[in-house]
Amino acid sequence: MKRPWAVTAVGILFIAAGGVGFVYHVQERPVDRWMVGIELIRVLAVVGGVFLLLGRGWARWLVLAWMAFHVVVSAFHSRQEFAVHLVLLLVIGYLLLRPPGSEYFRGAATR
Predict the structure, then answer these.
(1) What angle do CA 87, 20, 88 make, to 5 degrees?
(2) C or N terminus of the chain, fewer CB within 10 Å?
(3) Residue 98 DSSP code
């Protein structure tokens, strides 16, 4: 089955967000004990995006968990940031869990 455009878009979004965030944090923050955790979270976004593009079903759950984590973290910042992350989580969940996204990942299990 051909990869749906929505899966491609979400995969590229996560690769870009993780990659840009990784570079930004390395350049802008001093190295401290939190840096490893922050960078690991960015690497998980890239891994999730790459494996979405490869059709791995577990990557759906990884990117949804990554986004849910950001919803929780943004709740401690501002209402606007929280709202944006929540809307993104809902849209990404819709795109990955509804057909044709779910059919694509179901078909990938048989490959």
Answers:
(1) 5
(2) C
(3) S
Average pLDDT, the chain: 91
Rounded distance between C-alpha atoms, residue 18 and residue 82, angstroms: 19
Q: If you write DSSP's letter for every residue of 7-32 in order, what string do you get?
A: HHHHHHHHHHHHHHHHHHHHHHS---
Instruction: Please write the tens of the pLDDT for every residue from 47-64.
Output: 999 999 999 999 999 999
Give the confidence band of 69 by pLDDT, cuts at 50, 70, 90.
Answer: very high
CA angle 41, 42, 44 (to 5 degrees): 65
Read off the DSSP letter of residue 3.
P
pTM: 0.88
